[in-house]
């Protein structure tokens, strides 16, 4: 018996020691050697970490190859690639920022988020280090500047519009994609009459539903009003109320898939994108990433997917709006370098924007290249038509939630979802957004 | 000669297994409030120093864990709750109690609080009678008793997230198994699906929670039933009591402490409910299934309002603490005296 007691005591002691050891280990993190600044010299061993969201299919293979090529061209540099599903990446980035352990190269989306990151000293000013690339990208870096300094290099800039299934349109007897909301409602009626669910929306995640309101606001409000609201946080202009009323009108037509309130955006065949990819709905409002997302879903299912039946049209014009019907809602993804990253990370970010890499990026339809030399390589017809609209747009409004930052953006999105659920009025959206904006002042 | 009670004596309500323990073992460094666990005053020969050392040694790992993972985070949450903080950078903007005001005035938080209360009440109101009935049935000698008990307990063993994903798939409108079964018998679920419609989402969550936690209730009740002395049944039978009368007059009253302990655990679990809701509905649709925990995660990780999220977490902590204390004071207090009486009887 006495021996047993001693054994138990021994275990307790061992546990204590192990605990103490575990605690003290946390102090010197093993990632330290990779991120010590200034290690860009040839021959010196440097590890740079890179997080991206092309986690499926050809895109993942391509990015792995890009990293290998860069390593081969820069002896001593190791690129540690982490490919993650988009939402997962966003969550992990958030945690990494808080822990002060951001990856060396990561994705920025501009707007309020980038402002917050810059103010918190997370993101590196690369205005000088990447001057050459910045000059080549021209106007598209504007969204990634804070007070005149550039903090990220956009590699894909897209606009949000309606992706649709041409075969289902034909089946319903719709000859041309709608250009106005009257035509859109006619198309919705025809699709319903043919027994086809017109639209899918992943309202369960908020932002896909919110994009409808953003789009209506873009059609209802003039550019001056929108730009003004962005800086003054004033949403009193009646056009914001009209945006909600237009959306209410759309909801009253009941065009959405059953269960849209709990539908997710991009994960699996029952997601909004999955439904379009598998021919269960005719139309979905989504960004330029949609073909890639759908490809990933159908690859996993082992099906052919929507293929060449996929086409794109811009958000139709409203009859009573102040906005330019050619203005588009969009946004981009950019490679940013974290504050303490080695110089090699900036080189790598520039390498990702080089003519050659952007060409491959375009050829695989991974996004809409910002490097002007690469535009012509976009092979997908639907993406090419989207690119035309992007380049012709007089004004591209950044997604509102990104532009305003998360605190306002998410409050706004939540209220828009409430409207989808019949729990809020158009006025409630304006009020909630204004309240969240006032709380930020 | 031995002054350490090992785990085997600690099984709730169950008779201590004679092979591994000694009924007169004193317990060092841990209080045992469980019935049927023998306990008498320490009778060690060595001095108080040695005893103190021993206690320190045994308590240290637990204390270190408690400090690191409970006390420090709580203190940190209280600190953050006084600041307007975006999740990174230094604490610069002190706002006093403003975050608390904003949480308590927030209709989303009030809604979430109401959902928590509905779940607390519904969990107990549904699982108590159902669990008790099944436990009484399973307590009868019958074929396949072990297998039935295992089957009932399986959902509880399943990870919350896995169970949530499975149920999420079953609830998918039109394509999911539930809608398929309903339509095959000529019924139809709500148009938006059970988890997608405002009226049905919370009942759906409660149904899944019942499925998940009923096994836990039953196992606890069964354990409690083992603690009811055989003589009482015998005496009742000799007096000519029917099976129903025995359950009503003997079993359920003797099960009182177990029932009250279970209800306490269930209440605390319902107040802190997060993972199942998060996986199943994400608090949606339109906050129809939000809980205080999903509210604070939403404010924290999605809106970067860490000050508000921390204030909400402190409020959640206080709500749980107050309810726990009230429960202890007004409902569990009789158990404390009751167990003393019973303990004396057993250890005699």
From TrEMBL, chain A:
Coiled coil: none
Keywords for this protein: Signal
Pfam families according to UniProt: SBP_bac_1 (PF01547)
Signal sequence coordinates: 1-21
InterPro entries associated with the record: Bact_solute-bd_prot1 (IPR050490), SBP (IPR006059)
Identification of the protein by name: Sugar ABC transporter substrate-binding protein
Superkingdom of origin: Bacteria
From TrEMBL, chain B:
Chief location bin: membrane
Keyword field: Cell membrane, Membrane, Transmembrane, Transmembrane helix, Transport
Subcellular location: Cell membrane
Transmembrane portions of the chain: 53-75, 117-138, 150-170, 200-223, 262-286, 306-327
Gene3D superfamilies recorded: MetI-like
A Gene Ontology cellular-component term: plasma membrane
Family: Belongs to the binding-protein-dependent transport system permease family.
Name the record gives this protein: Sugar ABC transporter permease
Species per Swiss-Prot/TrEMBL record: Cellulomonas persica
